[in-house]
Amino acid sequence: MATDALREAVETMRAVRDRCVWTQQIDHRALVPYLLEESHELIDAIEAGDAAGMREELGDLLWQVLFHAEIASRGADGEAFDVDDVAASLVEKMVRRHPHVFGDEVAETPERVLELWNAAKASEKRQRTSVLDGVARSMPSLALAQKLIGKAAQVGVGSEVALAVHDAAEVGAVPESEAELGDLLLTLTAAARQNGWDAERALRERLRSLESDIRDAES
Predict the structure, then answer these.
(1) How far, in Å, CA of 214 to CA of 212, rounded?
(2) 52 pLDDT above the threshold of 70
(3) Residue 100 clears pLDDT 50, i.e. is over it
(4) Per the database record, which ranges form the NTP pyrophosphohydrolase MazG-like domain (predicted)?
(5) Whole-angstrom Cα distance, residue 175 to residue 154?
(6) Quick one: three-class SS letters along the chain?
(7) Does 136 have pLDDT greater than 80?
């Protein structure tokens, strides 16, 4: 690792795994709820502008990374990896995806940086057969919706969504700021509650339909 402090954190995690009976019985799947909780607590600190909270929550999130890596280091032969392997893979990926920093490419605008990033990512994922490959279905539904709408546009499946936006604009239902968007989303959620609908389920079911449309377009 890059610094003594990080190495000390790694060794602390190893000692805890060796000596704490609760920690010894935890596996990757059992850690997932804690990973989600720590991630949300970090987001809260960031959005609140709480620097001290961010420092603490980043540490808690780092602990999750170290925990998973320590569990993996004790895996079966051929499948085991440790935090050094994780760090090495990260460095290799970031160098590859930043040819304008570590190579000969030139990028003077954020748009060009994004082009280079996407080109490198596409080269890495040549074995993928669908734009949906690699999309995490466990994402929050709104984040997943934004992701899938972008994927739909890549394969030319966007007319229905665009039409819905157009129709909403006709009746003045398209927000003009993030604050207005928040108001609209809250209004829609309140309407769902009033009618006894599950807003989360409604969006996820609609996203399954969009995924099906994307796969149809690809085939």
Answers:
(1) 5
(2) yes
(3) yes
(4) 28-102
(5) 25
(6) CCCHHHHHHHHHHHHHHHHCHHHHCCCHHHHHHHHHHHHHHHHHHHHHCCHHHHHHHHHHHHHHHHHHHHHHHCCCCCCCCCHHHHHHHHHHHHHHCCHHHHCCCCCCCHHHHHHHHHHHHHHHCCCCCCCCCCCCCCCCHHHHHHHHHHHHHHCCCCHHHHHHHHHHHHCCCCCCCHHHHHHHHHHHHHHHHHHCCCHHHHHHHHHHHHHHHHHHHHC
(7) yes
Asked if the model's pLDDT at residue 163 lies above 70, the reply is no
Residue at token pair 């569990």: 71
Q: Which domains does the chain have, with CATH numbers?
A: 4-76 (1.10.287.1080), 97-124 (no CATH), 141-218 (no CATH)
Q: Which amino acid is at 42?
A: L
How many whole angstroms separate alpha carbon 206 and alpha carbon 219?
A: 20
Token pair 């990374």 is at which residue?
65
C-alpha atoms less than 13 angstroms from C-alpha of 29 in its C-beta half-sphere: 0
Give me the residue label for tokens 């990260």: 90
pLDDT tens digits, one per residue of 7-19: 999 999 999 999 9
pLDDT at site 124: 80
Query: In angstroms, how far apart are the furthest CA atoms of the chain?
Result: 64
Query: Each residue of 180-204: pLDDT tens digit?
Result: 889 989 999 999 999 999 999 999 9
Report pLDDT for 90: 96
The closest alpha carbon to 26, from 58, 84, 72, belongs to 72
Give the pTM: 0.76
